[in-house]
Amino acid sequence: MVKLTAAATASIPRIVIFALTIVYGLAGLFGRDPWKNEDSIGFGVMWHLHTGSWQDWLIPSLSGREQSMGAPLPYWLGASFMDLFGSWIGDTNAARLYSALCFFGAAIAIWYACYLLGRRKEVQPMSFALGGQPNTRDYGMTLADGALLIFLACVGLAQRTHETTPMMAQLMGLSIVMYGTIRGLDKPWQGGAWTGFGLVLLGLSSNWALTALIAIAIASAVFFCKVKLQVQWTLSSLAIAIVGIGIWPMLWQLFAVSPSAQELALQAWAQTPPMHRYIAWNSLQFMGVNFWAYAWPVWPLALVSLAHWVRHEDAGAWRAPHLCIPLGLLLAGLVYVLFRVNANEHDLIILIPPMAILAAFSLPILRRSVISFIDWFAMLSFTIIAVAIWLIWFAKTTGIPASTANNVARYIPGFEVQFSWITLVIALGITFLWLWVVQWRTSRAPKVIWRCLIISASGTTLMWVLLMTLWLPTINYAKTYRFVAERLVQAAPANATCIDTSNLGPAQL
Fold it and tell me: Among the four residues 176, 231, 280, 288, which has the most C-beta atoms within 10 Å?
């Protein structure tokens, strides 16, 4: 059993956790073009639905190509936001409201999933003879805050959670499946409804392999879990999942889509993205090289948690709900990534929610030396990154020092420096907030168990906001197709009505 006092589980002020999540989630969504490659593809399909006819919604595709892009839900959501808000804030900004919806939906689901697990009897700290241990509600809230901070602190999520890709809907769907299964432990009907809804999101935003793997993982976790779910959870989750996922094929029948088009759409749905029948060597290499940095600091905390809790038979060992359910989803996600033909950073997104839950349960048992290492490593790393961002921005804006400015110009030829007082003020504000957080952490030495995460979560937010203010014009210039399109317009005849795109990739199109 864990020994903790009530003071160690004091919750983070709500304004802090809300501000961190909102700033991180919204920074970089607006005021830029779609980026290469997946972001451009996602926006392109959404734009085609937005500007096309209602028939285009039945089988989403890129403009000028009839090939189905697979599961439709991400494109339906993005195009719907463009229809609703595009005339007010612009189509590109409106499309990214889809990304914001998915990010905040995933964050809320992760928080509540960990909150419910943290209130369970098997994970409660030891009771003291004279009292002073944390109450169930406060302990659950503290662990939930920790899970959300771990999610925000994940280095690899910064860019990928701000793009219009199907993986954002998968992130939200998997997080809701996890929440629904945990909710089903005490409220089976409600939990089953959320689990089924999450499976619908997954089924309509991914290929069949991922949906099947997650469904099998949840069924296996429920079977092996120490706490058994009631039949109401199974019935409600299955009914909602089957009906919801079946909506898309039902629309084909309702609007008389041709059998050949249905067959091609089914093939794309099943095989987008493509999968191997065995572990793909390319994906295994990718995981071996990129996973450790991408999922920092989530994976080491998750390992610490597993190493501790699997030895505690009184809590249920690996069959305890706080291990069995997220571990099952994590293993399913790993199998999916390893069997992908060419795994990339977008695929790793689905590994983070279950790892964040596992990692949160390491907080009560972390040694002081580990906490100090995480803190100082994060402080030094993000401070160095922030200084580098400021120095390079100053060099490219003023030309001083000349060597740095010349290096920037060499990497992005043709870029013209843009200066904005608004972005400068925002960047200064977030930098001063970072310095205040560092000063608070180093001077007060707080005893709360989430103290080692506030620096990491604040650091990733600092890094992302600085990049999306000081460096946004530079990054946008390097990753957009706008200038290629403008040159194409100038080169094409004024009366041209058709352009041969046979040699263009989906992102370029």
Answer: 176
